[in-house]
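A brief tutorial aside. Many learners find it easier to grasp structure tokens once they have seen a single protein encoded end to end. The record that follows does exactly this for tRNA U34 carboxymethyltransferase. Read the sequence first, then the structure, and try to relate runs of similar tokens to stretches of the chain.
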Amino acid sequence: MIEFGNFYQRIAKSPLSHWLETLPAQIGEWQRASLHGQFKQWTNAVEFLPDMKPYKLDLLHSVTAESETPLSEGQQLRIEKLLQNLMPWRKGPFSLYGVNIDTEWRSDWKWQRVLPHLSDLSGRTILDVGCGSGYHLWRMIGAGAHLAVGIDPTQLFLCQFEAVRKLLGNDQRAHLLPLGIEQLPALNAFDTVFSMGVLYHRRSPLEHLWQLKDQLVNEGELVLETLVIDGDENTVLVPGERYAQMRNVYFIPSAPALKKWLEKCGFVDVRIVDMCVTTTEEQRKTAWMTTESLADFLDPNDSSKTVEGYPAPLRAVLIAKKP
């Protein structure tokens, strides 16, 4: 079973200590609730992984762990097999003792786009909402963060995170909690909050922005990365049943409209720092994610459109401050 006691100890004497009034009960409820049918199989994979202590760890340029002497073919195969039990791997990539997890997303490319625009992460306490496998949590630690906390209710992602953590020497600087943002009280305790690839899945996008603001300290920084469309500050796409084959896409604003939304929620110094069309090199099928990916969601005759005829995925990064 995945334990959270280390995290409770870690925050007990920090500005996050008041979270302990609600968090252990929520986690306890999660442990008793209906776990995914494959959850036992996933946690077994984590359990059977060897406890590794990297001789060389690089979280600054990638998520790479190496041993002093190369692992034997048998050891490498064993690790690879156990990690394959946790497929599909969507966010990465990871290079762990010669096992290269080529994930669906080149999340490192997104990080390269976002990083130059951030306030220095050194010594910061960070929240990453909808963090997936936790890839970016490790990159945040690599950029100097004191503590990186991810939340994501998907149980497979929790197991992927714990598997990687075990292979990184049980590093306690990053933690993933199986919660959604709506389960967090107003903590007002994080220096930086990231919400990347979440907003378009929210039925009430402005409520999501308020929830993010409630997690930040005064003068804390929000990093918002999401789908946008071309247009002015009044342009918002409300897709039909599906957008790029995704069911739960509710609102896709233009970047100027999104800037307005952030200002409406009381954020200041709102900046649109990056816009980028998602390519089939950045999101694609791999040996570690074998089902359909972006190429299958675009119009085969016109890659500037989704199969439903909407504009193809364009993503923007906005940075804003809580006053």
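Self-check: The chain has a mean pLDDT of 97. If you spotted this yourself, you are ready for the next section.
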